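Section 3.1: Structural characterization of target chains.
Under the original work plan, the team committed to producing a structural model for every single-chain target entering the pipeline before any wet-lab resources were allocated. The record below documents one such target. The sequence was received from the expression subgroup and is listed exactly as submitted; it comprises 214 residues.
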Amino acid sequence: MVAEDYDSFWLWAGVKPQPVLGQAKSIYILAGEVRANNPKQFRLLRPVTPNISDVELWLVVRVETLDWPLQVQSQIIELAETWDKQGRPLTGIQIDFDSQTRNLKNYASFLEVFRAALPVRFKLSITGLLDWSANGDPMALSSLADVVDEAVFQTYQARETIAGYEQWLERLRDLPMPFRLGLVQGGLWREPENLEKIPNFRGFVVFLVNPPAK
């Protein structure tokens, strides 16, 4: 998979910006995280908006637990408002949380509370696991669709594309929400036929990685 063939990217902490970002139409930038061992703290990783213009910009929060106090929620929204005032207006916030499929109902309830606190000018995006499409409760998925503007399903783990991803993608056809597929830079990826014909499919997001050390 060659990143230059795409126009939407994740830029994670510790990953050096690459020339391919110059062709980006949208960039999802990791801004901070909430760790399971310290859920009362929003750990800031990028205090200011990078010097990027003319793109759809998303602020990403990596989450290990949903057990947040309101002060953490307020800090995240405050950071989003700060980014929105610097250079390119902010499109929205993406919550990067690997919710277990059996807990999707609780995740939808959490997101509903977060969405209610989020200023209406910001969209809400989430990352998702391929297993949701196969084993997720339809009512829970419908609840997620009522709250989020999009989901980006990860087709990889670490730097490797998930083996047999084709069978999982086939089950995304009936998802009740707009979605994109997350690809990893350099991964083994071949686009399935008729993917573009799925009604709620909105394209791809490439997870950029640093090149291996020589």
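DSSP finds five helices and eleven strands in the chain.
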